[in-house]
Amino acid sequence: MRTPRPGPAPIVVLVVALLVVALSACSGSGSGRRGSATTDPGPNPTSSDPGPNPTSSDPGPNTTTNGPFTEAGTLRLGSPLGCITLEQGSTRLDLHVSGYELGTSDGHPALVGTADGRAIATSGDRFIVTGYPRAATGRCGERFDVENVVNVAPAGS
Predict the structure, then answer these.
(1) How many CB atoms lie within 10 A of CB 121?
(2) pLDDT tens by residue, 131-151
(3) Is-above-0.70 flag for pTM?
(4) Distance of alpha carbon 51 from alpha carbon 45, whole angstroms
(5) Choices 2.40.160, 1.10.260, 3.40.1000, 2.40.50: CATH for 69-153
(6) 72 or 31: whose pLDDT is higher?
């Protein structure tokens, strides 16, 4: 006696059932999304967090104790003493800039990188730096160890 083999009908029913489940999972219903890129109504409501948020855990301002100082002035390079100085009225800061040295650019004194020889400033430029003053005054002025060059504005700009 032969056992009848199932025909294609049960397999078709199974495939259709799986497709229905897959399509209903992708339909977006119950997914928690508020809309799609084409139907998004705009910003989320702020009723649950209307702001501004409290700053009681960090009221500021934050301490700057032991932080670097910012100094600005006119850069003077290559005086007869070979100095790199920042003039601020009658005050002269003797700048010690790690990674840079006194050099030339187009025949004029310049502050150049020791690694690449690229000039970043010339004498007379407006120069802004951060760093730390040192308790020493030498032939070029009050010593200032530069931590960071913040800005260079060419002379006359």
Answers:
(1) 23
(2) 999 988 889 999 999 999 999
(3) no
(4) 12
(5) 2.40.50
(6) 72
